[in-house]
Amino acid sequence: MKRLIGLGCSLLLASCDTGRPSSPVPDGGLPAARSGGGGSFAFVNFELGAAPGTVCPGSAGCTNGAAEPMIRADATGTFYVSSELGVGAGTLAWKSTDGGLHYTALDSPNQLSQALGGLGPGGGDTDSPETNANGFNNLYVASLSLANVTVSTSQDGGTTWSKNVTSATIPGDDREWIAADQATKVCISYHDVVTFNIDVNCSFDAGAHFTQVGSAIDAAHAFLIDDNEIGNLAIDPRSHVVYQVFSGIANAAEALLPTSFHAVWIAVSLDGGNTFSDHTVYVNPNTSVSYGHQFVNVSVDRAGTVYVVYTDNHNLFYSFSTDGGQTFTGPIQVNQAPSATAVMPWSVACDPGQLNIVWYGTPYYDGTNVPDNYPATAAWSVYLAQNRNANVAGSKFTQVAATPIIHFGGVCEGGISCTGNRDLYDDFGIAVSPTTGLASITYSDDQPGNTGSDDHTAIATQTGGPIICSGR
Question: Which of the following CATH numbers is that of domain 27-464: 3.20.20.140, 3.40.50.150, 3.40.720.10, 2.120.10.10?
Answer without folding.
Answer: 2.120.10.10
